[in-house]
Design goal:
Blueprint lengths: L4 H7 L7 H11 L6 H12 L6 H13 L9 H7 L1 H12 L5
Length: 100
Amino acid sequence: MFDRFPEVCRNFGVPADVRSLLLLQKAIDERLIYTLGDLYTFFKGVLVKDPTHLGPYSQAFYYYFIGIDIQPGERLSDAVSRSRAFQDWLADFVKGDKLR
């Protein structure tokens, strides 16, 4: 599960290895992860040891889990607006399928 995430983090300049996946499995086994937000917070705590890595970590997370590619200098809201995930959600919302 999520086996490519450490590689994606490294591509964004965040030190990561497979040990983070082992810790994730423990957290899941202990029922500590329920939402995507929980997953974001968990990996942030495990991977971000230097404050300068917080931005690149967020970019890696959004890219890997939601398919949002944040360009240098771009606001997150702009990146979200042009993402496929947002466009799919918007299409469902407009059709009337407001709750998933």
